[in-house]
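Render this sequence as a predicted structure.
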Amino acid sequence: MESNTTARRTEDIALDLLKFVASQANIGSKAVGSTGFVPASGAKPEDQVTQLLELFARCRQAVEAPGPSK
């Protein structure tokens, strides 16, 4: 059961990292101008979802990577 708890914590940490990186890079958010108009040249929702899933996978790899050897 402990490994299940550890895996869940790893996923939670990776999700928090994803949220932080996505918010800083404006990934997954709609670009709305002051007029409320969304430009047609923006990324498709499917493309944004793909970017977020790829970013989550990279965040999990970073969290699960072993630390430096001593």
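Summary. The mean pLDDT is 78. The two ends are 29 Å apart (CA to CA).
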